[in-house]
């Protein structure tokens, strides 16, 4: 019987693997068509300064409106294509569309806001990346510092030597770089020292526990101080309550992003709110604490 059980476990395992492989293949094949048929879009989530709550920029987060499968969130397709060429196509789309969004922001008088886009570390090894960024900046006449390229700590550490030289070239263009999901990627301080980044984003897994868990409290305050001592700016991700926000402001974290202010929204809604808050630029708090 033990043998049988073992065998059926094995079968389940391979079936799951097969399904994942199929899914991966399907996504890789679909993505070209998805771009062509405009099934991809970017949602925007505001990033505000602390403690005043003024909007400083947005993060662009990809969405896939699949004709048969409906809305697909990035967590359900980005990891599957991260090591294939399709991730470059997605990144190129995100840069093109991100540039167009920045151009519309500038056109409407919001030239001081920045846009953060997410790129996979693999993209930093693509020789087409730097010419593309250069072309987009000049095509839309975008001040380079308005474009922030996010890369996760985990992926950049796996590819640090290769990513480093293109990061340096991007810095020469005046574009800014953020290390995303900081704290989840096992990077050593010697890597951190080498990477030419401007912004450090503290992952939600630390900020969410900042008031309940003293370990998280210490990690967050220490990371903020470390970043500041290196001359970098800090964004706290996943801020959901006013109390978290107050804590981070007191710890001198300068920027915050999270459901407290807004979930990712479509561009039209973002512009509607921008027009409403034109006077003081303070982004309205959307969802008050919903503690489970
Ligand atoms: P990320 O870059 O760390 O983005 C933040 C994620 O946290 C987003 O999920 C956002 O909706 C979510 N979030 C923001 N505030 C809160 C909050 O207060 N509470 C909670 N529970 N969640 C919050 P999303 O849009 O599903 O994206 C997931 C991840 O997918 C992103 O994490 C990023 O790593 C990746 N991703 C998104 N767009 C792209 C893209 O265009 N290219 C690449 N390569 N990756 C992308
Ligand atoms: Mg990000
Ligand atoms: Mg993140
Ligand atoms: Mg993330």
UniProtKB/TrEMBL annotation:
It comes from the Bacteria. Residues 24-278 form the EAL domain. This is GGDEF domain protein. The chain holds residues 529 to 820 of 824 of the full protein.
């Amino acid at each position: 019987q033990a043998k049988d059980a073992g065998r059926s476990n094995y079968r389940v395992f391979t079936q799951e693997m097969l399904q994942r492989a199929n899914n991966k293949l399907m996504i890789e094949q679909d993505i070209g068509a998805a771009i062509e048929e405009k099934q991809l879009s970017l949602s925007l989530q505001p990033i505000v300064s602390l403690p005043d709550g003024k909007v400083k920029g947005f993060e662009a987060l990809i969405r896939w409106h699949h004709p048969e499968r409906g809305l697909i969130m990035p967590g359900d397709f980005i990891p599957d294509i991260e090591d294939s060429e399709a991730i470059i196509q997605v990144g190129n789309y995100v840069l093109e569309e991100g540039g167009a969004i920045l151009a519309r922001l500038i056109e409407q008088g919001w030239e001081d806001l920045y846009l953060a886009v997410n790129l996979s570390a693999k993209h930093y090894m693509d020789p087409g990346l730097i010419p593309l960024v250069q072309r987009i900046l000049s095509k839309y006449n975008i001040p380079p510092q308005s474009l922030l390229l996010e890369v996760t700590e985990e992926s950049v550490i796996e590819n640090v030597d290769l990513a480093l030289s293109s990061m340096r070239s991007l810095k020469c263009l005046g574009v800014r770089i953020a290390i995303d999901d900081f704290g989840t990627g096992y990077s050593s301080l010697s890597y951190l020292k080498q990477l030419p980044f401007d912004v450090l984003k503290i992952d939600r897994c630390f900020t969410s526990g900042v008031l309940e868990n003293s370990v998280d409290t210490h990690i967050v305050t220490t990371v903020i101080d470390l970043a500041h001592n290196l001359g970098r700016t800090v964004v706290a991700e996943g801020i959901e309550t006013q109390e978290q926000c107050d804590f981070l402001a007191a710890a001198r974290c300068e920027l915050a992003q999270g459901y407290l202010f807004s979930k990712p929204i479509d561009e039209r809604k973002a512009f509607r709110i921008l027009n409403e808050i034109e006077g003081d630029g303070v982004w309205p708090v959307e969802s008050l604490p919903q503690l489970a």
